[in-house]
């Protein structure tokens, strides 16, 4: 049995690319994921997640850099090793089946800043001024 995971967060360092013994591309990265936590500062805690990608997904992950927003999905596993001090260590990681950039584009094709997925909507609202109707697309007074 495997555990599937989807995570969205920022890369904490530039991804590292390597070639496996059989010639396949492999890219490794670390992702900082914000999680709701009632005991954390501002109601959030940071979860550190390792990401390993192979083949085409490795190429996609390697195009990113520190600070980029990335969404990954794949199988969860626990990476265990002995540290230099002899203490057993472990880190959760995802073997990525999917790597999606969270970079956005502004209207007109210009690159937007990271994490501004609503910039196109905000731009449309500014264009329309006060005419933007925020009511739901249904009539509340319809008889049932």
Summarize the structure.
Helices cover 12% and strands 44% of the residues. It has 144 residues and is mainly β.
Overall geometry comes to: globular
In round numbers, the mean pLDDT is: 78
Main sheet makeup: 5 strands, mixed, barrel
H-E string: EEEEHEEH
What is the rounded distance between the termini?
47 Å
- What is the tally of beta strands? 6
Number of helices: 2
- Estimated helix fraction: 10-25%
Q: Largest beta sheet: what is the strand line-up?
A: 1-3-4-6-5
Beta strand %: 35-45%
List low-pLDDT spans. 112-140
Radius of gyration: 21 Å
Structural class: mainly beta
Write the SSE topology:
Layout: E1 3-11, E2 16-19, E3 25-36, E4 44-54, H1 55-62, E5 69-82, E6 88-101, H2 119-128
Parallel strand pairs: 4-6
Antiparallel strand pairs: 1-3, 1-5, 2-3, 3-4, 5-6
If you had to describe this structure to a student in words, what would you say it looks like?
The protein is mainly beta and 144 residues long. It is globular. It has helices at residues 55-62, 119-128, and strands at 3-11, 16-19, 25-36, 44-54, 69-82, 88-101. Mean pLDDT is 78; it is low at 112-140. A five-stranded mixed barrel has the order 1-3-4-6-5. The protein has two helices and six strands.
Key traits:
mainly beta; 144 residues; globular; 6 strands; 2 helices; 5-stranded mixed barrel
């Amino acid at each position: 049995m495997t555990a599937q995971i989807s995570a969205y967060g920022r890369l904490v360092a530039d991804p590292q690319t390597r070639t496996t013994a059989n010639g396949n591309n492999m890219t490794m990265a670390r992702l900082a994921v914000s999680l709701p936590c009632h005991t954390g500062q501002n109601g959030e805690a940071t979860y550190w997640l390792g990401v390993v990608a192979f083949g085409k997904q490795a190429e996609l992950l390697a195009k990113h850099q520190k600070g980029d927003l990335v969404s990954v999905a794949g199988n969860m596993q626990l990476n265990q090793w002995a540290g230099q001090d002899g203490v057993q260590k472990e880190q959760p990681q995802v073997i990525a089946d999917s790597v999606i950039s969270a970079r956005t584009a502004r209207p007109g094709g210009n690159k937007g800043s990271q994490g501004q997925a609503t910039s196109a909507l905000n731009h449309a609202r500014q264009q329309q001024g006060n005419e933007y109707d925020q009511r739901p697309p249904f009539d509340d007074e319809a008889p049932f």
